[in-house]
Specification:
four-stranded mixed beta sheet; elongated; 8 strands; alpha/beta; 2 helices
């Protein structure tokens, strides 16, 4: 059995993780820089090699991109499911700040709210609420 953790490569892992913590609540758990490695290259000493943080009750890993540029794409979306409409709307609006809304957060045919955004760092998010259970 595997354990899944999203790992984000970033142009500025510290700033990006702080944005997610501010938007979703949470905290940075640990940070390791290249400068902590033996024989670290001077130009990389302040770059983050591994950062662990928690936002919206979910654990994430990040690092700064140092060997190749970050390229945004549309193949992967991070999906957060919230218990309440209020939580979903708050997360959606805060993650959308400085980004782009691809689909507004609105009722979906399957009985929950659903919306898609691309945050200001180029990460795509799906925000939804738990589907209402119908009584037959």
């Amino acid at each position: 059995m595997a354990k899944y953790t999203t790992y984000i490569i970033s142009e500025d892992a510290r700033a990006q993780s702080e944005f997610y913590i501010q938007a979703l609540g949470g905290e940075i758990n640990s940070i390791m820089t290249h400068g902590q490695l033996p024989d670290a290259r001077e130009e990389l000493k302040d770059k983050i090699i591994h950062l662990c943080f928690n936002a919206a009750g979910v654990n994430f890993f990040m690092s700064d991109s140092v060997f190749e540029p970050v390229q945004s794409g549309n193949a992967v979306h991070l999906n957060l499911v919230f218990a309440s409409e209020e939580e979903a709307r708050q997360a959606f609006n805060q993650l959308a700040a400085g980004g782009q809304i691809h689909q507004p957060l609105e009722p979906a045919f399957w009985g929950s709210l659903f919306g898609q955004i691309e945050d200001k760092f180029g990460i795509r998010w799906m925000i939804t609420t738990e589907a209402a259970v119908s009584q037959a």
